[in-house]
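Weekly puzzle thread! Below is a chain. First person to post its structure in token form gets bragging rights.
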Amino acid sequence: MVLKAVLTIFMIYLTAGAAAGAPDNVTVSVFKNTVAIGERFLYSITVKNAKDVEFPVPDADNLTLVKSTLVTRGLFNKEYTMQYVMRGFVPGEYVLSGYRVKYKAADISKEQDVPPVNVTIHSTLFDNDTLEIADIKGPEEDTGRHNLYFIIAAVLLTAAVAALIYYLVKRRKGKKALPPPPRRAHETAYEALQRLKEKNLDKSGLIKEYFTELSSIVRYYIEDRFKLKAPEMTTEEFLFMVRGSEELSGAHKELLKDFLNRSDMVKFAKYGPSFDEIQGSFISAKKFIDETREFP
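Winning reply:
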């Protein structure tokens, strides 16, 4: 009796479940509403509280059904989900609609329309808004290799520039500025005579100072030109030394003798030379330098 009561209660429960077993909804879903050309997407139809469910086969222009899988859940209140894997190769907007689901509820055969759902397929070559060609994305492994080549090229270029700078700096340091050629004795003497002339000592009455500076110019010229210590010698000592010199001709020796003796007379004997003697001494000094100067 107890067992019979339990079975009765169980049957009543099943009957109540069947009575309430009319599907409360038929739902659809799309895992991704926007996909690229050729990309697969998942379209699902779910029916609850039914049995003997017959799902439609989606058929839409430019869409292809790849495969379908039935998934069942629940013990008493069954839930059936048909999962369709689909893809398309023509860009555009698609509406999956017009499908009907057949099933049984409380042993009564019924049908119900499947709610519509939208799917967008876009091109990977063009943007629908700008219609500009998209950049081509290269393989990731090539990107790393290109970066490595770029780094190596940059390092080599930097090393080459550094080596060039080092070479130029070393070369500049190695090239020392050449010293100017030494001035020749007659060039220095000519400038000294010009400065003496511009001082106008003879016209100012400074005759002794004039002859002192004039004789010094000639003596320093002889020292620079012939390497003789003329400034340190007296006139007598100097004339004795140059008597046997082969670098001076007899005429030059006589010219030098007259010039130095006249200068000594003015400096030490307080001799007052005439204007012609003063000019003649300057001309004699310049003539001696002109005729004995060094030629290239």
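Puzzle host: Confirmed. Bonus trivia for everyone else. The first helix runs from residue 2 to 19.
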